[in-house]
Write a structure and sequence with these properties.
This protein has about 325 residues and is mainly α. The protein contains 13 helices and no strands. The longest helix is centred in the middle third of the chain and has 36 residues. The chain is globular. The model has no long low-confidence stretch (mean pLDDT about 80).
Length: about 325
């Protein structure tokens, strides 16, 4: 009994700090694997103390807005199961970011959020949380298609820059994404079909308990969640545009949208093991796409690293400390 009590004590009071230290250690080793990390950090240091530092602060404030929108989405989707206050939903999204740091394609995000859900309702909340992720994925793919169309037009209009391999990759990617959008949109607006399938195949009642709350999400609620996902996407684009400006990556607003939309699309469909290893994919995608418009690869590296640091690392570290306020085991 004493051993069991000690284990619970460690999990309740030391799990957060342990995750915090582990994240710092993992970030450090992740940076060492990148050849340009020192130069990127140097560029960020100059930007923070330079005349454009106000843009860095705007990006940081937009990060708070970004996770606030995600918290609002989760709060709305969770209404059929539990009424959650906005601040509690905000903390849940940050804790979810912490858990996502150690899992493939951010799947641990669900585990982090359900810690803020009442006992007995946690498994049911998973299906509703997936709805939030699905809405963001749909917006990412739709905007990604728009970005591909823009890049194709740009490459056709600039034969010096354009090349056949890039055009071929964009065409294949576009075909795959359009099919995915159709399938995901049908699934998103027909969530009730999942409940009907369980009845149809006469699956055990326990599976019905996990998805029956999806029936409460009518088209009006789903459109509201989708609208918030679009607003969050717009925040992402604005953050990248400010970061490109800070690090002298000379591209227009439309070019920033087209390139970032394709970068997000690549990150959404290419599997990543953890948020930390996502840094390599983010850098590589940014270089390959943004260099179509700008040859300032160091600035592109620095902007991508800054976004990763502000949007993912800082919230993940904050979420690891918020775990201290959760009693994982009461009995």
């Amino acid at each position: 009994m004493q051993l069991n009590k000690n284990i619970k004590l460690i999990l309740n009071y030391f799990l957060g700090p342990i995750l915090f230290l582990f994240l710092l250690h993992a970030i450090y080793h992740q940076l060492l694997q990148k050849s340009n990390w020192r130069e990127s950090l140097y560029q960020i240091g100059l930007a923070v103390t330079g005349k454009d530092q106000w843009k860095i602060w705007i990006v940081f404030l937009l990060m708070l807005v970004n996770w606030g929108i995600e918290a609002a989405k989760w709060k709305i989707s969770m209404a059929p199961v539990q009424q959650i206050r906005f601040w509690r939903a905000y903390r849940a999204t940050l804790t979810g970011t912490t858990m996502a740091s150690f899992t493939p394609n951010r799947t641990g995000e669900y585990l982090g959020r359900i810690l803020y859900v009442e006992e007995g309702k946690r498994l049911q909340s998973i299906s509703l949380t997936i709805v939030c992720s699905l809405s963001q994925l749909i917006i990412t793919m739709i905007m990604g298609c728009a970005g591909i169309f823009y890049l194709q037009w740009y490459l056709d209009s600039h034969p010096v820059v354009g090349n056949i391999p890039m055009q071929l990759v964009l065409n294949v990617l576009l075909a795959i994404v359009i099919i995915a959008i159709v399938v995901l949109a049908i699934l998103y607006f027909r969530l009730v079909w999942l409940v009907k399938l369980i009845y149809w195949f006469r699956l055990p009642e326990k599976y019905l308990a996990y998805v029956k709350f999806l029936e409460a999400l009518d088209a009006k609620v789903l459109l509201r969640i989708l609208s918030l996902s679009f607003l969050r996407y717009a925040v992402f684009i604005a953050q990248y545009y400010f970061m490109f400006s800070v690090f002298a990556v000379s591209i227009s607003r439309l070019e920033a949208f087209g390139s970032v939309a394709v970068i997000f699309l690549i990150m959404a469909i290419v599997p990543t093991f953890t948020v930390l290893t996502e840094l390599g994919l983010r850098w590589e995608a940014a270089i390959q796409v943004v260099q179509i418009f700008s040859i300032n690869t160091v600035g592109i590296f620095a902007a991508s690293f800054g976004i990763w640091l502000i949007n993912l690392v800082i919230p993940a570290l904050a979420g690891s400390l918020l775990i201290l306020g959760i009693k994982l085991f009461k009995k």
